[in-house]
Amino acid sequence: MDVTVLTSVSKLSELKSDWNAILAENQEDNFYYSFDWIHAACHLFIHPVAQPFIVWIREDNKPVAIIPCCINRRRLRLLSCNCLELIGNIYSAYRGGVVLRGREADTADALVRCLLTHCQLWDMIHFEDMPASNPFLATLNQAIQKQRKMITRMSNQYANLIYDIVPGMYSSDYWQSREKNHRQNIRSAINKMNREGAFTIVLTSQPDQNIHAAMDHYYDIFKHSWRKEPEISPLFHRQLAEYLGLKGKLRLFVLYFKKGEHASDHNPSLSSYQSVIKPQQAIPEDYVPIATSFYAVSGSYISLLKTAYREDHAAYSAGTVLSWFAVKWLLDMDRAAIIDFQKEDDAYKFKWGRLNEIHVLFQAANSRSLLAVLELWGEENLMPLLRKIKKTRLWPIINNFLRRRAVRRKIIILRTGIICAFHKLPLPAGEGWGGGSKT
Predict the structure, then answer these.
(1) Parallel, antiparallel, or unpaired for β 80-86 and 62-75?
(2) What CATH number is given to the structural domain containing 79?
(3) What is the C-alpha end-to-end distance of the chain, expressed in Å?
(4) Pair 155, 171 in one domain
(5) Confidence of residue 47 (pLDDT cuts 50, 70, 90)
(6) pLDDT at 435
(7) Which pLDDT belongs to residue 421?
(8) I need a labelling partner for 242 at 20 to 30 A (CA). Which of 24, 211, 252, 387 fits?
(9) Spatial contact of 63 and 424, defined as CB atoms under 8 Å apart
(10) Number of domain units in the chain
(11) Neighbours of 191 (CB within 10 A)
Protein backbone atom coordinates (compact mmCIF):
# COMPACT_ATOMS: atom_id res chain seq x y z
CA MET A 1 0.00 0.00 0.00
CA ASP A 2 1.22 3.49 -0.83
CA VAL A 3 0.96 5.87 2.13
CA THR A 4 1.43 9.62 1.66
CA VAL A 5 1.31 12.25 4.41
CA LEU A 6 0.16 15.73 3.38
CA THR A 7 1.24 18.53 5.72
CA SER A 8 -0.64 21.42 4.09
CA VAL A 9 -4.38 21.98 3.62
CA SER A 10 -3.56 23.80 0.39
CA LYS A 11 -3.06 20.35 -1.16
CA LEU A 12 -6.46 19.12 0.00
CA SER A 13 -7.96 19.64 -3.46
CA GLU A 14 -5.65 16.89 -4.77
CA LEU A 15 -7.68 14.40 -2.74
CA LYS A 16 -11.14 15.39 -3.91
CA SER A 17 -11.54 12.80 -6.68
CA ASP A 18 -10.24 9.97 -4.46
CA TRP A 19 -12.40 11.15 -1.55
CA ASN A 20 -15.56 11.18 -3.65
CA ALA A 21 -14.67 7.83 -5.23
CA ILE A 22 -14.51 6.17 -1.80
CA LEU A 23 -17.84 7.75 -0.77
CA ALA A 24 -19.47 6.58 -4.00
CA GLU A 25 -18.16 3.03 -3.55
CA ASN A 26 -19.39 2.99 0.07
CA GLN A 27 -22.71 4.65 -0.89
CA GLU A 28 -22.12 7.07 1.99
CA ASP A 29 -24.27 10.23 2.15
CA ASN A 30 -23.40 11.53 5.63
CA PHE A 31 -22.59 15.23 5.22
CA TYR A 32 -19.82 15.09 7.80
CA TYR A 33 -17.92 12.54 5.73
CA SER A 34 -18.28 14.65 2.59
CA PHE A 35 -15.44 16.53 0.95
CA ASP A 36 -17.55 19.70 1.25
CA TRP A 37 -17.44 19.49 5.06
CA ILE A 38 -13.72 18.83 5.30
CA HIS A 39 -13.09 21.68 2.85
CA ALA A 40 -15.26 24.01 4.97
CA ALA A 41 -13.52 22.98 8.21
CA CYS A 42 -10.11 23.64 6.66
CA HIS A 43 -10.79 26.82 4.68
CA LEU A 44 -13.78 28.65 6.21
CA PHE A 45 -13.06 28.27 9.92
CA ILE A 46 -11.46 31.32 11.56
CA HIS A 47 -8.85 29.25 13.41
CA PRO A 48 -6.27 27.76 11.03
CA VAL A 49 -5.85 24.00 11.11
CA ALA A 50 -2.94 23.22 13.41
CA GLN A 51 -0.10 21.26 11.82
CA PRO A 52 -1.95 19.15 9.20
CA PHE A 53 -1.19 15.43 9.06
CA ILE A 54 -3.44 14.03 6.33
CA VAL A 55 -2.83 10.35 5.62
CA TRP A 56 -3.60 9.34 2.03
CA ILE A 57 -3.60 5.58 1.34
CA ARG A 58 -3.74 4.05 -2.15
CA GLU A 59 -3.13 0.63 -3.68
CA ASP A 60 -2.55 -0.13 -7.36
CA ASN A 61 -3.30 3.54 -8.15
CA LYS A 62 -6.73 3.24 -6.54
CA PRO A 63 -7.87 5.04 -3.36
CA VAL A 64 -8.27 2.98 -0.19
CA ALA A 65 -8.56 5.59 2.59
CA ILE A 66 -8.03 9.22 3.54
CA ILE A 67 -7.62 10.02 7.25
CA PRO A 68 -7.55 13.84 7.68
CA CYS A 69 -5.65 14.57 10.89
CA CYS A 70 -3.73 17.41 12.46
CA ILE A 71 -1.37 17.71 15.40
CA ASN A 72 -2.63 20.12 18.02
CA ARG A 73 -1.27 21.12 21.42
CA ARG A 74 -4.17 20.29 23.71
CA ARG A 75 -4.72 20.60 27.43
CA LEU A 76 -6.27 17.31 28.47
CA ARG A 77 -7.76 16.64 31.90
CA LEU A 78 -4.40 16.44 33.69
CA LEU A 79 -1.58 17.40 31.33
CA SER A 80 -0.86 19.07 27.98
CA CYS A 81 0.17 16.91 25.02
CA ASN A 82 0.73 17.11 21.29
CA CYS A 83 -2.44 15.35 20.16
CA LEU A 84 -3.11 13.74 16.83
CA GLU A 85 -6.74 14.72 16.13
CA LEU A 86 -9.23 14.37 13.31
CA ILE A 87 -9.84 17.60 11.40
CA GLY A 88 -13.33 19.03 11.86
CA ASN A 89 -13.43 19.53 15.62
CA ILE A 90 -16.17 22.18 15.53
CA TYR A 91 -19.43 20.50 16.39
CA SER A 92 -19.79 17.62 13.95
CA ALA A 93 -20.95 14.37 15.50
CA TYR A 94 -18.98 12.27 13.02
CA ARG A 95 -15.29 12.12 12.34
CA GLY A 96 -12.96 9.41 11.15
CA GLY A 97 -12.06 10.07 7.53
CA VAL A 98 -13.18 7.88 4.66
CA VAL A 99 -12.17 4.22 4.36
CA LEU A 100 -13.13 1.83 1.58
CA ARG A 101 -15.60 -0.65 3.02
CA GLY A 102 -13.92 -4.01 3.65
CA ARG A 103 -10.44 -2.46 3.83
CA GLU A 104 -10.64 -1.16 7.41
CA ALA A 105 -8.10 -3.64 8.80
CA ASP A 106 -5.56 -2.94 6.04
CA THR A 107 -6.04 0.79 6.54
CA ALA A 108 -5.61 0.54 10.31
CA ASP A 109 -2.36 -1.42 9.94
CA ALA A 110 -1.01 1.09 7.40
CA LEU A 111 -2.01 4.06 9.57
CA VAL A 112 -0.37 2.60 12.70
CA ARG A 113 2.88 1.92 10.81
CA CYS A 114 2.80 5.48 9.49
CA LEU A 115 2.23 6.95 12.95
CA LEU A 116 5.05 4.91 14.49
CA THR A 117 7.36 6.16 11.74
CA HIS A 118 6.45 9.73 12.73
CA CYS A 119 6.20 9.05 16.47
CA GLN A 120 8.45 11.99 17.36
CA LEU A 121 5.71 14.40 16.20
CA TRP A 122 2.86 13.37 18.52
CA ASP A 123 2.23 12.24 22.10
CA MET A 124 -1.39 11.11 22.02
CA ILE A 125 -3.92 9.89 19.47
CA HIS A 126 -7.06 11.80 20.49
CA PHE A 127 -9.98 10.83 18.24
CA GLU A 128 -13.24 12.40 19.43
CA ASP A 129 -16.82 11.86 18.27
CA MET A 130 -16.22 8.42 16.79
CA PRO A 131 -19.38 6.33 16.38
CA ALA A 132 -18.99 3.27 18.59
CA SER A 133 -20.12 1.09 15.68
CA ASN A 134 -17.47 2.45 13.28
CA PRO A 135 -15.67 -0.65 11.93
CA PHE A 136 -12.47 1.34 11.36
CA LEU A 137 -12.36 2.27 15.05
CA ALA A 138 -12.45 -1.40 16.09
CA THR A 139 -9.72 -2.38 13.62
CA LEU A 140 -7.56 0.61 14.62
CA ASN A 141 -7.75 -0.47 18.25
CA GLN A 142 -6.77 -4.02 17.28
CA ALA A 143 -3.87 -2.81 15.11
CA ILE A 144 -2.50 -0.71 17.98
CA GLN A 145 -2.84 -3.61 20.42
CA LYS A 146 -0.85 -5.86 18.08
CA GLN A 147 2.08 -3.43 18.07
CA ARG A 148 2.25 -3.32 21.89
CA LYS A 149 3.84 0.12 21.70
CA MET A 150 0.88 2.23 22.83
CA ILE A 151 -1.56 2.37 25.74
CA THR A 152 -5.18 2.78 24.65
CA ARG A 153 -8.36 4.02 26.27
CA MET A 154 -11.93 4.35 25.01
CA SER A 155 -14.71 6.24 26.81
CA ASN A 156 -18.31 7.14 26.03
CA GLN A 157 -18.96 10.80 25.15
CA TYR A 158 -22.65 11.22 24.31
CA ALA A 159 -25.70 9.67 22.69
CA ASN A 160 -26.43 10.66 19.11
CA LEU A 161 -30.12 11.11 18.21
CA ILE A 162 -31.82 11.12 14.82
CA TYR A 163 -35.38 11.94 13.77
CA ASP A 164 -37.64 8.93 14.18
CA ILE A 165 -38.22 8.31 10.48
CA VAL A 166 -37.69 5.45 8.03
CA PRO A 167 -36.75 5.65 4.32
CA GLY A 168 -39.76 6.42 2.15
CA MET A 169 -41.74 8.09 4.95
CA TYR A 170 -43.81 11.20 4.18
CA SER A 171 -44.66 13.95 6.65
CA SER A 172 -48.24 12.69 7.05
CA ASP A 173 -46.91 9.33 8.27
CA TYR A 174 -44.42 11.02 10.56
CA TRP A 175 -47.16 13.26 12.00
CA GLN A 176 -49.28 10.25 12.91
CA SER A 177 -46.28 8.56 14.54
CA ARG A 178 -45.82 11.37 17.10
CA GLU A 179 -47.49 11.32 20.49
CA LYS A 180 -50.90 12.96 20.72
CA ASN A 181 -49.71 15.60 23.21
CA HIS A 182 -46.83 16.61 20.94
CA ARG A 183 -49.14 17.03 17.96
CA GLN A 184 -51.57 19.06 20.05
CA ASN A 185 -48.77 21.33 21.24
CA ILE A 186 -47.78 22.05 17.64
CA ARG A 187 -51.38 22.83 16.63
CA SER A 188 -51.88 25.05 19.69
CA ALA A 189 -48.69 27.01 18.99
CA ILE A 190 -49.72 27.58 15.36
CA ASN A 191 -53.18 28.75 16.42
CA LYS A 192 -51.73 31.08 19.06
CA MET A 193 -49.48 32.84 16.56
CA ASN A 194 -52.33 33.16 14.07
CA ARG A 195 -54.68 34.55 16.74
CA GLU A 196 -52.21 37.15 17.95
CA GLY A 197 -50.67 38.04 14.62
CA ALA A 198 -49.31 36.37 11.50
CA PHE A 199 -46.26 34.26 10.79
CA THR A 200 -44.54 32.76 7.82
CA ILE A 201 -41.42 30.70 7.14
CA VAL A 202 -38.82 31.56 4.53
CA LEU A 203 -36.61 28.82 3.14
CA THR A 204 -33.27 29.89 1.71
CA SER A 205 -31.69 27.14 -0.37
CA GLN A 206 -30.66 28.60 -3.74
CA PRO A 207 -27.65 30.78 -4.65
CA ASP A 208 -29.91 33.39 -6.33
CA GLN A 209 -31.71 34.02 -3.03
CA ASN A 210 -30.53 36.62 -0.54
CA ILE A 211 -28.42 34.32 1.65
CA HIS A 212 -26.68 37.32 3.23
CA ALA A 213 -29.97 38.79 4.52
CA ALA A 214 -31.18 35.39 5.76
CA MET A 215 -27.91 34.91 7.66
CA ASP A 216 -28.26 38.41 9.18
CA HIS A 217 -31.57 37.24 10.65
CA TYR A 218 -30.01 33.91 11.70
CA TYR A 219 -27.36 35.76 13.73
CA ASP A 220 -29.95 38.17 15.16
CA ILE A 221 -32.00 35.23 16.47
CA PHE A 222 -28.93 33.67 18.08
CA LYS A 223 -28.06 37.01 19.65
CA HIS A 224 -31.46 37.05 21.40
CA SER A 225 -31.65 33.31 22.11
CA TRP A 226 -31.00 31.25 25.23
CA ARG A 227 -27.65 30.25 23.71
CA LYS A 228 -25.31 32.67 25.46
CA GLU A 229 -22.02 31.10 24.44
CA PRO A 230 -20.21 33.05 21.69
CA GLU A 231 -19.76 31.57 18.24
CA ILE A 232 -16.45 29.70 17.95
CA SER A 233 -15.91 31.33 14.56
CA PRO A 234 -18.11 34.42 13.92
CA LEU A 235 -18.15 34.14 10.12
CA PHE A 236 -18.03 30.37 9.74
CA HIS A 237 -21.76 29.72 9.35
CA ARG A 238 -22.24 32.69 7.01
CA GLN A 239 -19.46 31.45 4.73
CA LEU A 240 -20.67 27.86 5.04
CA ALA A 241 -24.20 28.92 4.03
CA GLU A 242 -22.86 30.65 0.93
CA TYR A 243 -20.67 27.67 0.07
CA LEU A 244 -23.51 25.15 0.52
CA GLY A 245 -25.96 27.43 -1.32
CA LEU A 246 -23.79 27.28 -4.43
CA LYS A 247 -23.94 23.49 -4.31
CA GLY A 248 -27.68 23.23 -3.59
CA LYS A 249 -27.00 21.70 -0.15
CA LEU A 250 -28.28 24.53 2.05
CA ARG A 251 -31.65 24.47 3.84
CA LEU A 252 -31.89 27.56 6.02
CA PHE A 253 -35.35 28.02 7.57
CA VAL A 254 -36.33 31.27 9.32
CA LEU A 255 -39.72 31.85 10.99
CA TYR A 256 -40.99 35.46 10.91
CA PHE A 257 -43.76 36.80 13.12
CA LYS A 258 -45.68 40.09 13.32
CA LYS A 259 -47.91 40.68 16.29
CA GLY A 260 -51.32 42.21 15.54
CA GLU A 261 -51.00 41.45 11.83
CA HIS A 262 -53.66 39.37 10.07
CA ALA A 263 -52.91 36.99 7.26
CA SER A 264 -53.70 38.15 3.73
CA ASP A 265 -52.43 37.70 0.20
CA HIS A 266 -49.90 40.44 0.90
CA ASN A 267 -48.98 39.05 4.32
CA PRO A 268 -49.25 35.26 4.02
CA SER A 269 -49.37 32.96 7.02
CA LEU A 270 -49.27 29.23 7.64
CA SER A 271 -52.77 28.52 8.88
CA SER A 272 -52.42 24.90 10.08
CA TYR A 273 -49.96 22.07 10.51
CA GLN A 274 -50.92 20.90 6.99
CA SER A 275 -49.80 24.16 5.36
CA VAL A 276 -46.76 24.11 3.10
CA ILE A 277 -43.79 26.48 2.97
CA LYS A 278 -43.72 28.39 -0.32
CA PRO A 279 -40.39 27.75 -2.12
CA GLN A 280 -39.88 31.36 -3.22
CA GLN A 281 -41.46 33.10 -0.23
CA ALA A 282 -39.88 36.55 0.13
CA ILE A 283 -38.76 37.89 3.50
CA PRO A 284 -41.79 39.91 4.71
CA GLU A 285 -41.34 43.55 5.68
CA ASP A 286 -41.74 44.60 9.32
CA TYR A 287 -41.82 41.00 10.55
CA VAL A 288 -39.50 39.88 13.33
CA PRO A 289 -37.31 36.79 12.77
CA ILE A 290 -37.88 34.67 15.88
CA ALA A 291 -36.67 31.14 15.08
CA THR A 292 -34.17 29.52 12.72
CA SER A 293 -32.84 26.09 11.73
CA PHE A 294 -29.73 25.51 9.60
CA TYR A 295 -29.60 22.15 7.78
CA ALA A 296 -27.10 20.67 5.34
CA VAL A 297 -28.31 18.21 2.70
CA SER A 298 -26.16 15.41 1.32
CA GLY A 299 -28.25 13.06 -0.77
CA SER A 300 -30.95 11.62 1.47
CA TYR A 301 -28.86 12.27 4.62
CA ILE A 302 -29.70 15.62 6.24
CA SER A 303 -27.86 17.13 9.19
CA LEU A 304 -29.21 19.75 11.57
CA LEU A 305 -26.26 22.06 12.21
CA LYS A 306 -27.78 24.80 14.37
CA THR A 307 -31.19 25.83 15.69
CA ALA A 308 -32.41 28.60 18.00
CA TYR A 309 -35.35 30.86 18.85
CA ARG A 310 -35.67 34.32 20.38
CA GLU A 311 -36.03 34.07 24.13
CA ASP A 312 -38.35 37.10 24.26
CA HIS A 313 -40.82 35.22 22.02
CA ALA A 314 -40.65 31.92 23.91
CA ALA A 315 -44.39 32.01 24.64
CA TYR A 316 -45.11 31.24 20.98
CA SER A 317 -43.10 27.98 20.87
CA ALA A 318 -41.69 29.15 17.56
CA GLY A 319 -38.85 26.62 17.68
CA THR A 320 -41.34 23.74 17.88
CA VAL A 321 -43.46 25.15 15.05
CA LEU A 322 -40.42 25.71 12.84
CA SER A 323 -39.13 22.20 13.54
CA TRP A 324 -42.40 20.71 12.31
CA PHE A 325 -42.56 22.71 9.07
CA ALA A 326 -38.84 22.09 8.43
CA VAL A 327 -39.14 18.31 8.83
CA LYS A 328 -42.31 18.41 6.71
CA TRP A 329 -40.35 20.02 3.88
CA LEU A 330 -37.35 17.70 4.29
CA LEU A 331 -39.51 14.58 4.16
CA ASP A 332 -41.86 15.60 1.36
CA MET A 333 -39.57 17.68 -0.87
CA ASP A 334 -36.03 16.46 -0.15
CA ARG A 335 -37.16 12.87 0.55
CA ALA A 336 -34.92 12.57 3.58
CA ALA A 337 -34.08 9.08 4.80
CA ILE A 338 -32.11 10.29 7.85
CA ILE A 339 -32.28 13.62 9.66
CA ASP A 340 -29.46 13.78 12.19
CA PHE A 341 -29.60 15.82 15.42
CA GLN A 342 -25.82 15.50 15.89
CA LYS A 343 -24.40 16.02 19.37
CA GLU A 344 -26.18 16.25 22.71
CA ASP A 345 -29.28 14.42 23.90
CA ASP A 346 -31.47 17.41 24.85
CA ALA A 347 -34.87 16.39 26.23
CA TYR A 348 -36.85 18.08 23.42
CA LYS A 349 -35.14 15.89 20.81
CA PHE A 350 -36.82 12.75 22.15
CA LYS A 351 -40.20 14.20 21.12
CA TRP A 352 -39.00 14.15 17.53
CA GLY A 353 -36.43 11.39 17.42
CA ARG A 354 -34.79 8.32 18.86
CA LEU A 355 -31.41 7.15 20.02
CA ASN A 356 -29.11 6.26 17.15
CA GLU A 357 -25.83 5.25 18.78
CA ILE A 358 -23.20 6.19 21.34
CA HIS A 359 -20.19 8.23 20.28
CA VAL A 360 -16.85 7.67 21.95
CA LEU A 361 -13.44 9.18 22.57
CA PHE A 362 -10.54 6.97 21.51
CA GLN A 363 -7.08 7.70 22.92
CA ALA A 364 -3.72 6.00 22.49
CA ALA A 365 -0.60 7.17 24.32
CA ASN A 366 2.73 7.14 22.51
CA SER A 367 5.03 5.05 24.72
CA ARG A 368 7.86 7.51 23.98
CA SER A 369 5.87 10.28 25.70
CA LEU A 370 5.86 10.10 29.49
CA LEU A 371 3.23 12.89 29.65
CA ALA A 372 0.79 10.95 27.46
CA VAL A 373 1.31 7.73 29.41
CA LEU A 374 0.76 9.58 32.70
CA GLU A 375 -2.39 11.20 31.30
CA LEU A 376 -3.99 7.87 30.44
CA TRP A 377 -2.77 6.29 33.68
CA GLY A 378 -4.38 9.15 35.58
CA GLU A 379 -7.66 8.76 33.68
CA GLU A 380 -7.76 5.02 34.41
CA ASN A 381 -6.56 5.10 38.03
CA LEU A 382 -6.45 8.59 39.56
CA MET A 383 -9.80 9.94 38.34
CA PRO A 384 -11.88 7.01 39.68
CA LEU A 385 -10.13 7.45 43.04
CA LEU A 386 -10.90 11.20 43.06
CA ARG A 387 -14.55 10.49 42.28
CA LYS A 388 -14.71 8.22 45.34
CA ILE A 389 -12.95 10.82 47.52
CA LYS A 390 -15.42 13.47 46.29
CA LYS A 391 -18.18 11.59 48.08
CA THR A 392 -16.30 11.66 51.42
CA ARG A 393 -15.62 14.37 54.00
CA LEU A 394 -12.05 14.74 52.74
CA TRP A 395 -13.17 16.42 49.50
CA PRO A 396 -13.86 19.95 50.89
CA ILE A 397 -10.36 20.00 52.42
CA ILE A 398 -8.67 18.82 49.19
CA ASN A 399 -10.78 21.12 47.04
CA ASN A 400 -9.92 24.13 49.22
CA PHE A 401 -6.20 23.30 48.99
CA LEU A 402 -6.36 23.01 45.18
CA ARG A 403 -8.21 26.32 44.86
CA ARG A 404 -5.66 28.15 47.03
CA ARG A 405 -2.86 26.70 44.96
CA ALA A 406 -4.58 27.78 41.70
CA VAL A 407 -5.02 31.33 43.03
CA ARG A 408 -1.34 31.48 44.04
CA ARG A 409 -0.34 30.35 40.55
CA LYS A 410 -2.47 33.06 38.93
CA ILE A 411 -0.87 35.69 41.20
CA ILE A 412 2.61 34.49 40.19
CA ILE A 413 1.68 34.62 36.48
CA LEU A 414 0.20 38.13 36.85
CA ARG A 415 3.22 39.40 38.78
CA THR A 416 5.63 37.93 36.21
CA GLY A 417 3.61 39.49 33.36
CA ILE A 418 3.75 42.95 34.97
CA ILE A 419 7.51 42.69 35.54
CA CYS A 420 8.10 41.56 31.94
CA ALA A 421 5.93 44.38 30.59
CA PHE A 422 7.68 47.00 32.75
CA HIS A 423 11.16 45.88 31.67
CA LYS A 424 10.03 45.14 28.10
CA LEU A 425 11.05 41.50 28.39
CA PRO A 426 9.43 38.60 26.47
CA LEU A 427 6.93 36.48 28.37
CA PRO A 428 8.29 33.11 29.51
CA ALA A 429 7.38 30.06 27.46
CA GLY A 430 5.12 27.39 28.90
CA GLU A 431 1.61 26.83 30.17
CA GLY A 432 -0.37 29.82 31.31
CA TRP A 433 0.92 32.12 28.57
CA GLY A 434 -0.98 30.83 25.55
CA GLY A 435 -3.45 28.26 24.26
CA GLY A 436 -3.63 25.80 21.44
CA SER A 437 -5.45 26.39 18.16
CA LYS A 438 -8.76 24.78 17.25
CA THR A 439 -9.40 22.58 14.31
Answers:
(1) antiparallel
(2) 3.40.630.30
(3) 28
(4) no
(5) low
(6) 42
(7) 62
(8) 24
(9) no
(10) 2
(11) 13
